[in-house]
TrEMBL record:
Species: Sphingomonas aerophila
InterPro entries per the UniProt record, alphabetical: Atp1_alphaprobac, ATPase_put
Coiled-coil region: none
Keyword Transport in annotation: yes
One term under GO cellular component: proton-transporting ATP synthase complex
Protein name: ATP synthase protein I
A Gene Ontology BP annotation from the UniProt entry: proton transmembrane transport
Length: 105
C-alpha cells in the first residue's frame, strides 16, 4: 500500500528479488576485492601465522630481557633468566591459544 497500488509487497518473498540481492552482494564483493578495499580470504591464514609468530617471539624476547635485568640487579645469575623464560613460554602459549581459538572473520 506504500506505492498506492493497493498491494503490499513488503512481506512477500520473490525468488527473483532474492536472487538479484545475492548477485548484487557477490558483485559488490568482487569489486571490493578488485579495487583492494577488502583483502581476500587467503590472506587470513598468513595474517594468523604472523600474529602467532609475533606473539611467540615477542613473549620470549621480552621475558629474556626482563630475566637478564633481574639477574643483573639482584645478582641471582641464572635463576632470574630461567624463571622469566618459563613464564614467557607460558604467556606465549596462552596468547597463541587465544589467537587460534578466536572466531574466524
Amino acid at each position: 500500500m506504500a506505492d498506492g497500488s493497493g498491494q503490499d509487497f513488503r512481506g512477500a518473498e520473490d525468488p527473483r528479488l532474492s536472487s538479484l540481492d545475492e548477485r548484487l552482494k557477490e558483485a559488490r564483493h568482487h569489486e571490493a576485492l578488485r579495487s583492494g578495499h577488502v583483502k581476500p580470504a587467503e590472506d587470513a591464514g598468513y595474517s594468523l601465522g604472523n600474529r602467532v609468530l609475533a606473539a611467540l617471539i615477542g613473549s620470549l624476547v621480552g621475558s629474556a630481557l626482563i630475566g637478564w635485568c633481574i639477574d643483573r640487579w639482584f645478582g641471582v645469575s641464572p635463576w632470574g633468566l630461567i624463571v622469566s623464560l618459563f613464564l614467557g613460554i607460558a604467556v606465549a602459549f596462552r596468547q597463541i591459544l587465544r589467537i587460534a581459538g578466536g572466531r574466524p572473520g
